[in-house]
Specification:
Enzyme I, Chain A, domain 2; 4 domains; 8-stranded mixed sheet; 43% helix
């Protein structure tokens, strides 16, 4: 039975469309379980009935014509229960419904299995027998597995318009669901892009002439460097410096000893250039793949993309430019930032990537270019998207394929609203971020995106609320020395001077190993990471702290932040080491000053020790991403449970209130630096709690400022009290959506669609 299952699944996956997939299912299943009939009924949610879509054993003329109303018959019973119904004598059941249009005789044996996707019953897979028969457990499991395969195919068909019947010729209103990558609404034509070369297909081969192989490799790298510099020049006018610096990060990667040196070493160990490149790229990418941090994990795709680019030049291939329409929506299995950059200026309307997340470089560039993007549509049939008319909703992560005129009309209206919203946001650009009753709420920037900065140019921010220091450590073959770190940190401190910059000490380990400092653990979420590694390796911590203190000499805008604190001893030990680094530098003649020091509250244990922590430090920064994940015991990157992750959960709100209340009792500043801070609706609640400042990515600054400038602290406190009366995150979200609508800011929330 298992071999049969694998064969059917393979055939279904290879089917060109849903009609062929259903035909394969009903034919093969009927044969596999030796049944007299196999049929598939699909649910029409708009007409509230179940349609016969395929059958082997009943009249073919009945397909697309026979409709069974909701809650009627055994098909309706399977849908109601969302579980199998297995009957030896179906006609004797009270819910049995005879349908003569199908040519049905008095079939007795009945097994119906629901086809379920995202908790919704999309239809029923049925087998029938003339004689009395209770189907075996193995046969039930067999149908269950095939029903799961059908669920994905049905979702594709519904979204792309391939699931219509002669009695329902209206275009589809359904959509493919992904993750929001960049906000906005786009209407355009799909242009499908593919990787320039297949790195995984490269075999190992002996290097007959290692010196020539090395020369070819270095020539290919130089060609990619030239390509990158040319693309960066094209974006000089349209992208701010901090986003163009993404190209500098790639260039730095191409010049790193770890990439060049390791590949050359492998060449001289006997592998030809392409094989050596494949090994090196995969070695680097796997380090990033294993990381918990979303942003850092997404860097694996950048590494592989650079590898493919080098391979393309090694193979002496030339990239063939696509024919881009003026409303191009770039679609791909894994769209790269370089592919995005190759679209002619002004032609790019949107980006849709089957893989990737909001922290991938293509999403970051899309936000910087103000181009809507949807990421992570794992069920998208990329090969069938070329030339299709698309609507992209970057707020909700939806993509409509060949949309109905009514859907087009609605989204054109929303696109017009977006343009008006953008104009209103721009009007607030130079105004202070303060409530209607005069309370100032500084908005800071989360960065650390790159290790070398020319200028960040985010004029709207009042400084940096979180500067991540991990990436400069990750693109090297060994720990960076003190002088190298001084140069990196001083760039960001000078760029924002005199505005404050909060630099977080190294947050690696467990799920974020360095290539030269691997940490292998069975449970990295709860493992050796962050401050734990820093304290266990004081030589690493002291070098970094010395570099940070030296970088701030004469600027005095530094704030130091300690990550992953779970008990007070960690703070005591870290403060002792910071004081030691300070004293050593003074003795060496450096005119360093002791900065304000804070801790991140991102572990539930720290929530209940805020007062003890606050007595030791100057400020607290709440990392809502990890705090929410730990409080709800949800890995938000796990597709099975990601929907449970919600920072508006009542437990999260009450934890935040406890943190703020405890910190205020000791007159300590409290900042929020997670995604919650950049959510305009959630900002209302944080304002009501009395949070002192918010830190977010650059794309959220103006939206959050607009909300804060439109509300009073009193109103924010009222909304917070109302939110605390609810027991569900969905109710809190609805409350905030309605509040923004009442304030005339409904354009910031797209949840109602």
């Amino acid at each position: 039975m298992l071999d049969t299952l694998h064969r059917i699944v393979k055939a279904v996956n290879a089917a060109p469309d849903l009609e062929h997939a259903l035909a394969i299912i009903v034919t093969q299943v009927k044969k596999a379980v030796d049944a007299d009939v196999c049929s598939v009924y699909l649910t029409d949610f708009e007409r509230r009935d179940h349609v016969l879509k395929a059958t082997e054993g009943l009249f073919q003329d009945a397909v697309d014509k026979v409709r069974l109303p909701y809650h009627r018959g055994l098909i309706g019973l399977v849908c109601e229960r969302a579980e199998p119904v297995n009957l030896a004598d179906a006609p004797s059941h009270s819910r049995y419904l005879f349908t003569h249009e199908t040519g049905e005789t008095q079939y007795k044996g009945f097994l119906g299995v629901p086809i379920i996707q995202n908790r919704k019953v999309l239809g029923v897979l049925v087998v029938r027998q003339i004689d009395k028969r209770t189907f075996a457990d193995g046969e039930v499991t067999f149908l269950f597995t095939l029903a799961a395969q059908l669920a994905g195919a049905i979702t594709h068909a519904q979204a792309s318009g391939n699931l219509t019947t002669p009695n329902d010729l209206s275009p589809p209103k359904r959509f493919l669901r992904g993750q929001p990558g960049a906000p906005g609404v786009a209407l355009g034509t799909a242009v499908v892009v593919y990787p320039p070369a297949d790195l995984e297909a490269v075999p190992d081969k002996p290097a007959q002439y290692p010196e020539q192989e090395e020369e070819d490799f270095r020539t290919a790298v130089a060609a990619v460097v030239e390509d990158l510099m040319a693309i960066e020049d094209r974006f000089e006018e349209s992208l701010p410096a901090e986003d163009r610096a993404l190209f500098d990060a790639w260039l730095m990667m191409l010049g790193s000893d770890s990439l060049i040196g390791n590949t050359v070493r492998r060449i001289h160990e006997g592998n030809w250039a392409s094989g050596a490149l494949r090994e090196t790229i995969e070695e680097h990418a796997k380090v990033f793949d294993a990381m918990e941090d979303i942003y850092l994990r997404e860097r694996a795709s950048d590494v592989r993309d650079l590898g493919r680019r080098i391979l393309m030049h090694l193979q002496q291939k030339v990239s063939t430019p696509s024919d881009y329409p003026k409303t191009t929506i770039l679609v791909g299995d894994e769209v790269s930032a370089l592919q995005l950059a190759e679209v002619p200026h002004g032609y790019l309307t949107g980006v849709v990537s089957a893989h990737g997340a909001s922290f991938s470089h293509v999403a970051i560039l899309a936000r910087a270019m103000e181009v809507p993007a949807v990421m992570g549509l794992s069920n998208m049939p990329v090969s069938r998207m070329e030339g299709r008319s698309l609507i992209l909703d970057g707020y909700l992560g939806r993509v409509y394929v060949s949309p109905a005129p009514s859907v087009v009309q609605e989204y054109r209206r929303l696109a017009d609203e977006d343009r008006e919203l953008h104009q209103e946001l721009e009007a607030d650009r130079d105004l202070p971020c303060e409530t209607t009753d005069g309370t100032r709420v500084p908005l800071y920037l989360n960065t650390g995106l790159i290790s070398e900065l020319n200028t960040l140019g985010i004029e709207e921010s009042e400084g940096v609320g979180l500067y991540r220091t991990e990436l400069p450590f990750m693109v090297r073959d060994s720990f960076p020395g003190e002088s190298v770190q001084v140069t990196n940190y001083r760039k960001v401190l000078k760029t924002f001077h005199p505005r404050p910059v909060t630099i977080r000490t190294l947050d690696i380990g467990g799920d974020k190993p360095l290539p030269y400092f691997p940490v292998n653990e069975s449970n990295p979420f709860l493992g050796w990471r962050g401050i734990r590694i820093s304290l266990d390796h004081p030589e690493i911590f002291l070098t970094q702290v010395r570099a940070i203190l030296r970088a701030a000499i004469g600027l005095n805008n530094l704030r130091l932040l300690l990550p992953m604190i779970s008990h007070v001893q960690e703070v005591d030990d870290a403060l002792m080491l910071i004081q030691r680094a300070h004293d050593e530098l003074i003795e060496e003649g450096f005119e360093v000053t002791m900065p304000k020091i804070g801790v991140m509250i991102e572990v539930p244990a720290a929530v209940y020790q805020v007062e003890a922590l606050a007595r030791r430090i100057d400020f607290l920064s709440i990392g809502t991403n990890d705090l929410t994940q730990y409080l709800l015991a949800v890995d938000r990157n796990n597709a099975h449970v990601a929907e449970i992750y919600n920072d508006l959960h009542p437990a999260v709100l009450r934890a935040l209130i406890q943190i703020v209340t405890s910190a205020k009792a000791l007159q300590r500043e409290v900042s929020v630096c997670g995604e919650m801070a950049g959510n305009p609706a959630a900002a209302l609640l944080l304002l009501g709690m009395g949070v002192d400042s918010l830190s977010m990515n650059g794309g959220s600054l103006l939206r959050v400022k607009w909300v804060i400038r439109s509300v009073s602290c009193g109103r924010a406190k009222e909304l917070l009290q109302a939110a605390l009366r609810y027991e569900r995150a969905s109710e809190v979200k609805a409350l905030l959506s309605n509040a923004l609508e009442d304030m005339g800011l409904g354009g910031l929330m797209r949840a109602g669609r």
